[in-house]
């Protein structure tokens, strides 16, 4: 294993953060990129990365890493260090207010213009050409702030990968994934290996999160060239939501790491017998069918349903109780679906999103991700 230290742009004299990437195997073959805790206060992925490192160390020592695997155990040193009054706040950068998992730069048109005359009838050659040009464009992009330098560094490590896994978590949730619709054929085995109850699919959900910035280049290049050249969906990129924020145990993390290793072995990046494809524990549904449950009033929040429950439209999921008037407001599911995530806070402000139910029909439009 080779550890590489990537200095970020210094935000002030005497201050310097860095990103550390761990590299297994050798470049030139299939590549997987895995990063943990892009939202710095979402820690299950960091523990999974620890267990992945232990397993990859042993596999490399045994000569079984046949592809290239890049692991970033701390994808966001900025957010990891952000505390206010003892509260860890790693989702938004304090300086800009921007979500660390949004606004990744788009090099699609620039790369298409640069390499278009060189594309041909060989799909593999086209993929290699586009990857080289994309990496060069990412590295050449300006970065005027520490946050921009973090985004550029992460994209430079991942933009030429066949598989990109971005390890996150929700507040309280079942294991679930986010991916772009063109990735679903390759993502479906990943969902099986991870035992995901749900995969939420969209094509360009808005604001360019990391996983979509990694995968959308391929279908957008295919659209740009209008099928004149064979350009496959050469990157499976997925956001892996490792249950809830408090699900940080060795038992869960070791099992999740093993499941990721099994998937990488199934994809041919690790030597050994190809594992059998597990039975599916969930299904894919449109991200536009994921319905937020909002509290119309403020009060004490208590849930009547656990995450993982199948619910019906009109079924009461939670109560919001005004402790002064004793008024009880019922929060009902707007659709039949899976209650896959809920907040861990138990006081709701008026308008607060407190839970999410995944239905089977696309009902929402516009930007589909929350803040």
UniProtKB/TrEMBL annotation:
Q: Which Pfam families match?
A: AstE_AspA_cat
Q: Which cofactor does it need?
A: Zn(2+)
Q: Which Gene3D superfamilies match?
A: Zn peptidases (3.40.630.10)
Q: Which UniProt keywords apply?
A: Hydrolase, Metal-binding, Zinc
Highest taxon in the source lineage: Bacteria
The record, for CDD domains, names: M14_PaAOTO_like
Where is the Succinylglutamate desuccinylase/Aspartoacylase catalytic domain positioned along the sequence?
A: 29-262
Can you provide one Gene Ontology molecular function annotated for this UniProt record? metal ion binding
PANTHER family found in the cross-reference section: BLL3975 PROTEIN
Name the record gives this protein: Succinylglutamate desuccinylase/Aspartoacylase catalytic domain-containing protein
Q: Which organism is it from?
A: Roseateles saccharophilus
């Amino acid at each position: 294993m080779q550890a590489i230290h990537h200095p970020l742009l210094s935000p002030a004299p005497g201050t310097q953060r860095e990103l550390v990437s761990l590299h297994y195997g050798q470049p030139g073959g299939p590549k997987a990129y895995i990063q943990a805790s892009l939202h710095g206060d979402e820690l299950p992925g960091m523990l999974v990365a620890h267990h992945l490192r232990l397993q990859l160390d042993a596999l490399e020592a045994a000569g079984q890493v046949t592809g290239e695997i890049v692991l970033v155990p701390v994808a966001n040193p900025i957010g990891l260090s952000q505390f206010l009054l003892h509260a860890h706040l790693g989702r938004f950068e304090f300086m800009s207010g921007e979500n660390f998992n949004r606004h990744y730069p788009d090099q699609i048109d620039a790369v298409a213009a640069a390499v278009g005359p060189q594309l041909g009838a060989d799909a593999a050659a086209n993929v290699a050409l586009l990857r080289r040009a994309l990496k060069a464009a990412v590295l050449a992009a300006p970065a005027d702030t520490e946050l921009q330098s973090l985004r550029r560094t992460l994209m430079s490590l991942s933009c030429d990968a066949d598989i990109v896994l971005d390890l996150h978590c929700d507040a309280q949730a079942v294991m679930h994934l986010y991916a772009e619709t063109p990735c679903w054929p390759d993502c479906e085995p990943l969902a099986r290996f991870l035992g995901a109850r749900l995969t939420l699919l969209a094509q360009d959900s808005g604001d360019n999160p990391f996983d979509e910035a990694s995968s959308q280049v391929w279908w957008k290049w295919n659209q740009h060239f209008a099928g004149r050249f064979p350009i496959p969906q050469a990157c499976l990129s997925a956001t892996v939501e490792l249950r809830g924020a408090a699900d940080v145990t060795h038992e869960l993390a070791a099992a999740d790491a093993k499941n990721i290793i099994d998937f990488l072995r199934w994809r041919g990046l690790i030597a050994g017998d190809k594992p059998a494809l597990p039975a599916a524990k969930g299904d894919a549904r449109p991200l536009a069918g994921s319905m937020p449950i909002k509290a119309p009033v403020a009060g004490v929040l208590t849930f009547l349903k656990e995450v993982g429950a199948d619910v019906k439209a009109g079924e009461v999921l939670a109560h919001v109780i005004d402790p002064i008037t004793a008024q009880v407001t019922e929060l009902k599911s707007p659709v039949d679906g899976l209650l896959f995530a809920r907040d861990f806070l138990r006081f709701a402000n008026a308008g607060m999103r407190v839970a999410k139910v995944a239905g089977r029909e696309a009902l929402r439009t516009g930007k589909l991700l929350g803040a």
